[in-house]
Amino acid sequence: MRQQPTRKVTLTKGGPQQPQHLPVGPHMYQAISPGIKSIQGIHPAKKAIMHGRGRGVAGPMGRGRLMPNKQNLRVVECKPQPCVVSVEGLSSSTTDAQLKSLLMSVGPIQVGCLQVVMMPSLQMLPQQRKAIAKFKEPAHALAFQQKFHRHMIDLSHINVALIVE
């Protein structure tokens, strides 16, 4: 426990005065500037300095992350993320090898998937100037769309769209 500073005030008239001890709680200290001298009738401003984190007065000190309890838990429904991209507006001279190298530059594409109809990883539709590809991860499909949408390949601007299954 710290020793509290004692203050003696001498008066010109009257008897001696007892030293004053002010009640100070735990972790609180008096902040009195040493340059201010006590004169009868004028008292220095007393400030309390609280040690802790932040400026919050209410509640326990040092609150960090909230621990999960039944009140602050949320139910989040995850929607299925699209893994399939549609590439439209292809040039007639664009080959599947060129398109496959573009797709593989972002991430791996699936070799085959189990659906009603077996769809290969890359399906070219040259009559419609379109291709459909399926990535292994939804993040790769999104990255491919962001990177190559409205991109020029073989003098044609391609449009990349995500397809939700």
UniProtKB/TrEMBL annotation:
Could you tell me where the Polar residues compositional bias lies? 1-20
InterPro entries found in the cross-reference section: Nucleotide-bd_a/b_plait_sf, RBD_domain_sf, RBM33
One Gene Ontology molecular-function label: RNA binding
Source superkingdom: Eukaryota
Segments of this protein annotated with the region Disordered: 1-21
> Do you know which SUPFAM superfamilies this protein is assigned to?
RNA-binding domain, RBD
Q: What is this protein called?
A: RRM domain-containing protein
Q: Which species is the source of this protein?
A: Myodes glareolus (Bank vole)
List the taxonomic lineage. Eukaryota, Metazoa, Chordata, Craniata, Vertebrata
